[in-house]
Design brief:
- The strands form 3 sheets. This protein has an 8-stranded parallel barrel with strand order 2-3-5-6-7-8-9-15.
- The chain is built from 13 helices and 16 strands.
- The chain has 416 residues and is an alpha/beta fold.
- The protein has one domain: TIM Barrel (Alpha-Beta Barrel).
- α5 packs parallel to α6 and α10 packs parallel to α11.
Length: 416
């Protein structure tokens, strides 16, 4: 998942734009988007209680830089025990030579251990580069370094998030993932983030869904940034497009039990008529104007159009209501889970909404539930006894950096 380098809005001067108020303008009609292992089975916890509480597994991508902006993300996770199955922090990048660039871990390992959250660290391709994929030798170096990192830290899972790729990378990427799957510890889960085949930007051609399904345990469909920085104003994750992206992925050969629907919890602010957008975390928007946005029944997403200082602005974002609609869609299509991009962007109301959607009305949000398995890493650090991770048989039937599936610089091919 491309990591957001776009600065989000905290400056008082820019924040005043949101406070300027909402007009009565109807929902804008956006222009066409031009950006638009061995353990290769779906992850499953061992506890029946947890499975009854929620039918979907949850991967939570974590931006530790947002921990300084209240509310603290871990306090919200702890308020909903058992909801998150894997925490995926942005810790590693693969360089052009196959070496691993490690980022500061902060307090995430300690806090995750306290809440019994298994870690699924994310590995990006540094600078969205593909050089290391081009030869068997550098692929082998990268795989050796990834496996060494995993075994040294006793990670129970990893996420591979290589983006900015080209159609010419398709064979090399598949070969890389196949070799990585064979080299990883048998009990470890490999998840992989993929660009929707419906993105229309050409980047998705690098992913051979059918072949990748055979070597990964979970595939995260990055169903967001249909509009964003580099496109005209419009919905970030239009509902019909999300539906089509899921259907297309399933028809391409991904087993439903392996497919995880990526759900955003941020939005973009444009000057009306511009293609330059600023990323805004959900909790920052809500701290200023929560509850006063308009709702588009067509796109099932929140928006606003307002004028400040004589300048018209457009805002679209995936609200808690929109997240619930997408969780319900994942349930309807019998997917394996959902993946939130990204923890640190959300607020308490969002957590209450998604918890209720994941657990259902019979299990109110915030109630106690069984936690996910504990990896050896946590046993070493906390002395707590680990439960064995069980991999379920797949069922055939289901900016640091920002998350851009359609980044204008790397992913856009303008339609004429």
């Amino acid at each position: 998942m491309n990591m957001h380098r776009t600065p989000w809005l905290l400056a008082a001067g820019v924040a005043s734009l949101w406070l300027a108020g909402c007009g009565a303008t109807p929902a804008p009609q956006p222009k066409a988007n031009v950006n638009s292992s061995k353990s290769n089975k779906a992850p499953k916890t061992t506890t029946k209680t947890a499975d009854k509480a929620k039918s979907l597994k949850v991967i939570a991508f974590y931006d530790q830089t947002m921990s300084a902006v209240p509310p603290d993300p871990f306090s919200l996770v702890k308020a909903h025990p058992g909801l998150v199955d894997y925490l995926s922090p942005f810790w590693y990048e693969v360089s052009s030579t196959g070496s691993i660039i490690a980022k500061p871990e902060g307090n995430a390992p300690t806090l995750a251990a306290q809440d019994h959250l298994p870690l699924m660290p994310l590995f990006n391709n540094a600078g969205a580069g593909d050089v290391f994929l081009k030869s068997a030798a550098t692929r082998a170096v990268a795989i050796r370094n990834i496996v060494s990192t995993v075994t040294a830290h006793h990670y129970p899972a990893i996420n591979i998030d290589f983006q900015g790729l080209k159609s010419s990378d398709r064979t090399d990427l598949t070969a890389f993932m196949d070799s990585l799957s064979k080299a990883m510890p048998k009990s470890d889960i490999i998840s992989m983030s993929v660009v929707p085949l419906t993105s229309g930007n050409g980047q998705s051609s690098a992913y051979d869904y059918t072949a990748l399904d055979k070597v990964v345990g979970a595939m995260v469909l990055m169903a967001y940034d249909f509009h964003g920085d580099g496109t005209p104003p419009g919905p970030v994750s239009p509902y019909a497009w999300v539906q089509k992206s899921i259907t297309t992925a399933l028809h391409a050969g991904i087993q439903p039990s392996k497919l995880y629907l990526g759900i955003a919890n941020y939005g973009y602010l444009w000057t009306n008529g511009s293609t330059k957008a600023t990323t805004i975390p959900l909790k920052v928007m809500h701290q200023h104007k929560y509850g006063v946005y308009k709702w588009s029944p067509t796109y099932k997403e929140a928006y606003d159009i307002y004028t400040s200082g004589g300048v018209s602005h457009v805002l679209w974002f995936v609200s808690d209501r929109a997240a619930v609609d997408r969780i319900d869609l994942a349930k309807k299509d019998h997917l394996g889970g959902v993946a939130f991009w990204r923890i640190g962007y959300e607020d308490a109301k969002w957590w209450n909404a998604v918890s209720g959607a994941l657990k259902g009305s019979s299990s109110p949000s915030g109630t106690a539930a069984s936690r996910s398995p504990v990896s050896p890493q946590y046993v070493k650090r906390t002395g707590k006894k680990a439960r064995k991770t069980v991999i379920a048989p797949a069922k055939k039937a289901v900016k640091t950096t920002t998350h851009k599936a359609n980044n204008a610089k790397n992913q856009a091919t303008k339609k004429k």
